[in-house]
């Protein structure tokens, strides 16, 4: 009960943006990389190293190609749905799954995993015949006539 209170009311939840800024960050990193490659070409062209300039031009072309690849592959994930597309998607889901109970699904959808009800397995009764642990009988040694040195009879 206390742990539930701590999770809900005390611990500050960090903001999670779902990586919505990643396309901008990726674009800025690759633009900075392209600018630095252009500056390197300019620097090396003043130092009489004409042999490396064609390789650096290929490097810029590869950087632009990589930017286009990342944009085409990952940007569609970060695009938000317009309302019309969301309505179309909802109607398609309703027709494919007509018995889907949305209230039941949403009841635990946004619940912290610690707070979800966990079903514990009830241990089955231990079969005494197949139990690997063997019960032993302990017998007392009160019937023996010898007295040990550390018994309560000595007063120790």
Automatic annotation (TrEMBL):
Bias kind Polar residues: ranges: 137-156
Domain of life of the organism encoding this protein: Eukaryota
Native source species: Nicotiana tabacum
Region listing for Disordered, in residue ranges: 131-156
GO CC entries: membrane
Upper classification of the organism: Eukaryota, Viridiplantae, Streptophyta, Embryophyta, Tracheophyta
Domain named CSC1/OSCA1-like 7TM region: residues: 1-44
Name of the coding gene: LOC107763744
A Pfam short name: RSN1_7TM
GO molecular function, one term: calcium-activated cation channel activity
Protein name: CSC1-like protein At4g02900
């Amino acid at each position: 009960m206390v742990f539930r209170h701590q999770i809900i009311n005390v611990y500050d939840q960090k903001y999670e943006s779902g990586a919505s800024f990643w396309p901008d960050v990726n674009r800025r990193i690759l633009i900075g990389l392209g600018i630095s490659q252009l500056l390197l070409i300019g620097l090396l062209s003043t130092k009489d190293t004409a042999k490396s300039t064609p390789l650096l031009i290929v490097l810029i072309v590869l950087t632009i190609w990589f930017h286009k690849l990342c944009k085409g592959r990952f940007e569609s994930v970060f695009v938000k749905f317009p309302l019309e597309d969301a309505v179309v998607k909802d109607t398609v889901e309703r027709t494919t799954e007509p018995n889907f109970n949305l209230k039941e699904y949403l009841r635990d959808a946004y619940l912290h995993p610690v707070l979800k009800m966990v079903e514990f397995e009830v241990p089955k009764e231990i079969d005494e015949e197949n139990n690997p642990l063997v019960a032993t009988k302990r017998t007392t040694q009160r019937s023996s006539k010898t007295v040990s040195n550390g018994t309560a009879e000595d007063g120790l």
